[in-house]
Amino acid sequence: MEAMKMSKRFFAFGISACIAIYVAYIKWRLDSKPLMGATEGIAESRGDKLNHQAMTTDLSVFYGIMFDAGSTGTRIHIFKFTQQPRETPKLTHETFKALKPGLSAYADDVEKSAQGIEELLEVAKKEVPMELWKFTPLVLKATAGLRLLPGEKAQKLLDKVKEIFQASPFFVRDDCVSIMNGTDEGISAWITINFLTGRLDDPQKRSVGMLDLGGGSTQITFLPRAEETLQTSPAGHTTSFQMFNHTYKLYSYSYLGLGLMSARLAILGGVEGKPSEGEELISPCLPPGFKSEWQHAEIVYKIKGQKAGEPLYESCSNKVAKMLYKKVHKAEEVKDLDFYTFSYYYDRAAEAGLIDKEKGGSLTVSDFEIAAKYVCKTMEISPGSSPFLCMDLTYITFLLQELGFPKSQAFKLARKINNVETSWALGATFHYIDSLNRLQY
Ligand SMILES: O=c1[nH]cnc2c1ncn2[C@@H]1O[C@H](COP(=O)(O)OP(=O)(O)O)[C@@H](O)[C@H]1O
Ligand SMILES: [Ca+2]
User: Fold this and answer.
1) How many domains, in total, are found in the chain?
2) What is the pLDDT of residues 377-416, one digit of tens each?
3) Which of 179, 205, 225 is at the close of a domain?
4) How far is the CA of 334 from the centre of ligand 2 (A)?
5) Name one Pfam family in it (predicted).
6) Among this protein's residues, is 185 annotated catalytic?
7) H-run or E-run covering 300
8) Domain final position from 132, 147, 179
C-alpha cells in the first residue's frame, strides 16, 4: 500500500517536469564532473530581482538545504548549484555536518531538540550568501528513529522543527518537515549513487544497486533487469517512477527494525521501546563474562555475555540466523548486479580494518564473514574496545546472505564520491527542487 501511494506520488511529479529536470541532471552530471569542488571564479548572482521562480532561469547560483534526521544523528547537507543563463545547473559543492544523538532521543523533551537544529542552521547561514537565504529551500526528512516512535511523540518533534524552520530566513513550504517513507529513502539513495557514478544519463547503461544499513532500518534498492524479479517480488517491494523519458521500475524495500542498532536489540532479546527493568539481556554474541550497559533509543539496558561454551562465532550466528528467520526477501537477481553499500556497512568495515576509513574500498560477503570469525575469536579472550563488533559483523554477514547475496559477491563501499556524501539526501533534494519547479508550470 505504502509503495503504491509512493509510486503515485512519484508519477505525480509530472512526466514533463520529470523529463525536464532529469535532462538537466544528466547534462549537469556531464558538465559538472570537472567542476566538482571548483566553485571559485563562478559569478554569483546577487540581485534583488531573484525570486523562487527564477531558480531555473536567471540564477547563476542557488542552494538547497536538506536535513537528514536519522535514528542515530541529525545531519545537514547544503548543496550548491550553479547555472548560467540558458544552461543546465551543475552541482558544484556540498557542505556536510553531523550531530548526535538523533531527533528521536528528544521525544520526551522536545524543547531540547531545538539546540542541535539551530546549530546546524547556523552552518547553513554561514554557507549560503545572505541575499540567497529567502530563495533557498530548507527541508528536513526523518527516517527510522521517528518511524519507530509513537505517532504523537514524532509529531511533536516535527512540529518543533517546523517552528524553527519557519522562523529561519530560508524558503520553507508547508511540507518542509516530514517523516520519509522507506521506499522514498531507498529510491533517493539509488538516484544519488547512480547520479554520482554517472549512470543516470544513459538508461542502457547498467545501473548500480544500493544497500543502506542505518540504525533503525535498512534498505535495498536496485533496477531489476529480469521481468521475473518484478513479478516474483512480494507486494510493496517494487515501485516505479519516470525519469529521462523512461519509466524505471525499481525493486526497493526498507526493513524497519533491521537497522544495526535495532538488530542489536533484537539479537539481545530486547523489545523496542520497552525497558528490561533490572533484568539483564544475555547474549551469545557478546564476549563471555562481559558485563555492561547499553543505551538505545533513550533506554539503558543491562547486557551480559553468555558463559563460554561453543565458539563465539558459532553461537552468535545461530542467534542471528534465528532473529533473521523469514524476515527478509531474497531477490534472486541481486547476485548478478553491482551494489554500493552505505552507512553502517561502511562504518563497521572501517572499524574492523577491512577498508580505509577515508577511501573506502571493495569487499565480499566472505570478507565480512572472515572478519566476523576473527573478531569473535579474539573476543573469546578479551572484549577489547568494541564489544559489539562480533555481533555487528556476524549480523552484516547474515543479512547480506538473507538478501540473496552469495559469499563471493563484491560490494563497493564509498562514503563520498566527488566530495559528495553518498546518502539519500542528494536524491531527495533533486525531488524537492523538482517539485518546486513544477509549481511554475
Ligand atoms: O550522510 C551521511 N554521511 C555519513 N554517514 C552517514 C550519513 N547518513 C547516515 N550515515 C551513517 O548512517 C548510520 C546511522 O544511520 P541513521 O542514523 O541514518 O539511521 P536510520 O537511517 O536507520 O534512521 C551511521 O553509520 C552514520 O554514520
Ligand atoms: Ca540513514
Assistant:
1) 2
2) 999 998 888 999 999 999 999 999 999 999 999 999 999 9
3) 179
4) 22
5) GDA1_CD39
6) yes
7) strand 299-305
8) 179
